[in-house]
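Re-run with default settings, no changes from the original entry. Doing this only to confirm the output is reproducible before filing.
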Amino acid sequence: MIPINKPNINLYILTGMGLSLNRFKILSIVLLVCSLSIVSTVSTVPAQLPDEGSDRYEYLGIRHDTRPQVCLFEPNPTHVDWDYWLEVEYESKRAVLDWQLEMTEFLPEGDWSMYTHSTVPYIEHWNKTPDDYRHCTIFLTFEAFNEDPESNALGLTGIDFSKSSHKFTYIVVYLHALEHTNIVLNFDDAKKDPITGLTKFEINLERQQLPLQTVYNIVLHEMGHGLGLGHYESLSPNGYKRSTMTPSLQPFSDQVFDIKIADKFMLGYLYGTDGYQKPQPIWISDHCLFDHGIKVIGCY
């Protein structure tokens, strides 16, 4: 069973990336380390499970006023292989396009197009801030590693809607992670502590490049946050298959995320049948309840 945890909406200061940010809200998709448990970012907000017999799909309380402007930012080339980055860039643009295509098919009368700008080279943005790219409303950035020792997040989405002149969401995708495999201990290589008498082993775990399908999964998920969708929470063992906004992911598996009917309904309900153009619905609901990810029970 996939454990459920409420989206972690905390204040952070992100450092070590090209664009620097002040404090803003964060959501994360966490690394699933085994089939029964997850390692989650620390949160003081208690988990809120869906009502018994239904799945809960949350909104973030924000939406874009105009057509989203997506800007990709090249990661530090010192830490990311160039050929790998080119494939990552392609998969990322494919994930952005899939949101557009799926919503256009679902609600063809609306305008669901997003403008994806040319990728900004690292040398041009390493010392810049979001204020230097005021045309961007969704920042899609990439880091080689998650440097937070207490976090196994594979992706983060920040929200800054504090200024009416520049409202934006800010995505960070991490491109390497530890691959959890069975460890075989060789006693011939063990060292015995002369004081305690305990046998010690040196185990070096190197972070591996994420498979391209995993990168696509993460970008697809974080783009959902970037557009205003929260997490899909379910008590069902297979509930994680009902939405691309499930809060956990097995990074080195063959898991494939795709945009489900619940995701399309939620985005359509958030922006209206006209898509990203005005007029938009007056209210933004807190969450909706689903039956098996297909039937909408209600939005509240």
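Residues 10-299 form a domain with the Collagenase (Catalytic Domain) fold (CATH 3.40.390.10). Residues 82-106 form the longest helix (25 residues).
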